[in-house]
Amino acid sequence: MSDDGKKTLGLLGGPRSGNVKQSFSHGRTKTVVVETKRKRVVVPKPGAAKPTALGAVRGGDPARRPAGISDAEMDRRLKAVQAAKARETEDTARRVKEELVREDERNQRRQENEAKERDLREREERAKAKAETEAAKVREAEAAAKLAAAPPPTPEERAAKSGVLRNKVAEAPRREEPARPNRNKGREDNRRSGKLTVNQASTGGDGRHRSMASMKRKQERARQKAMGGTVEREKVVRDVQVPDGIMVQELANRMAERVADVVKSLMKMGMMVTQNQSIDQDTAELIVEEFGHKMVRVSDADVEDVIDQVTDNPDDLKPRAPIITVMGHVDHGKTSILDAIRNARVVSGEAGGITQHIGAYQVKQNGELLTFLDTPGHAAFTSMRSRGAQVTDIVILVVAADDAVMPQTIEAIAHAKAANVPMIVAINKIDRPTADSQKVRTDLLQHEVIVEQMSGEVQDVEVSATTGQGMDLLLEAIALQSEILELKANPNRAASGAVIEAQLDIGRGPVATVLVQNGTLLVIFLLWVSNGVKCVH
Questions:
Q1: Do 332 and 441 sit in the same domain of this protein?
Q2: What is the DSSP letter of 332?
Q3: DSSP designation for 457
Q4: 323 inside domain
Q5: Stated pTM of the model
Q6: Residues 331 and 451 in one domain
Q7: Are residues 298 and 327 in the same domain?
Q8: What is the pLDDT of residues 120-154, one digit of tens each?
Q9: How far apart are the first and last CA of the chain?
Q10: Same-domain status, 448 and 477
Q11: Are 437 and 476 in contact (CB under 8 A)?
Q12: For residue range 321-336, what is the model confidence (pLDDT) as tens digits?
């Protein structure tokens, strides 16, 4: 029995058992039961006959055979051993054969490398011998040139050398002329150095050839050298048009200069740029002046300068409808006020209830037309608000009574002042409990907008787009301001105006909202008839 009360496992026949005490750290001990098992010995029966020699060949000695192994099993094991030995022999033979093949390949590669090295040494020796031969020819030519440049010998020296008296005329020794250098030597190679020959194509070569432009420059230099010196080209001064931003490559093309030279000049100025990067107008001006050209500043606004301005006769001017722009902070009710004026629901058609484009509408008030421009109030549409303020006559500044002056409200005031147009302050959402119109008027004082109730000149109207409160007063204020401005235009002239917005319509193509400020715009329809095209207004 073990310490936990369970019976220990063992063999039948009474194995010998004992207890072993194990010691651990911290004074812990454990007693383990150890059993000694005896090996089973199989003894053959007394009446069994000993195997003969033939039996030994088949299954081996049964006395040495493990217990429980039959003759068939023994045969299978012997066959497995023999098959394993055969496979081992085959593997050894295959490895030997592969090693011989690899050795042959190594020898072949070594022979090829030796052949290449031998060819290389031979080429180097031939090149060295050729160089020595050319050096010897050069030395001979120099010696001949020195001999030709030496002064001719005097008659006494010739007589002393020849042994003839002075009174006898001795024949002057014949002097050999130095070999003249061959002017055509190497000319054929230089002339054909930019072309691909059959020999170069077959041998491969280094793959680098001179371009035709390089060959032409070389021929031009040789021609100028033959004429007696280099001829410098006259510097061409160009008028370079530079917009607000221009790429380095485009600037070099307009100056007819190399892009690398322009980039080098910029790097000298401390600007590490590439040919595909843009530079500002001031930097481009420095580069243009450095290369000796003249700079012409251009901008997008220059397009308006080419439009012909026609001076109208005062007798032809007639009253026109005022152009009113509605501005203000986002969600202060600009489009809602315009809805209340024209009795339409425009807010429901905008994404999230926020106007995302400039809308132009016309409203009749007491028999007179009023043109309204609804501009977005969100900060992302600053440029759109700026375009709206440049074409307007009157600005309606919408301020929520429960929110007072906000960042876009301040920006709208700045646009109106820049366009130099009068303002009418519409204090919206006056019906809300938290509305405080007096706070709005006080906040406007900080931005130099003084309303009439504060002893100023700017009209202010308290309105509510939801209930319609104060809308009549707002229209009266617009009509009064329009009468003060005395707006007039000439309808009997070519139309001119401004594009408010443009978009691409899938069915109609490019569509633009145009505000005609002068003249009359005629719409012409082309009708195809049997005998040609007919124009109909």
A1: yes
A2: S
A3: S
A4: yes
A5: 0.43
A6: yes
A7: no
A8: 999 999 999 999 999 999 888 888 887 777 666 66
A9: 122
A10: yes
A11: no
A12: 888 888 888 888 887 8
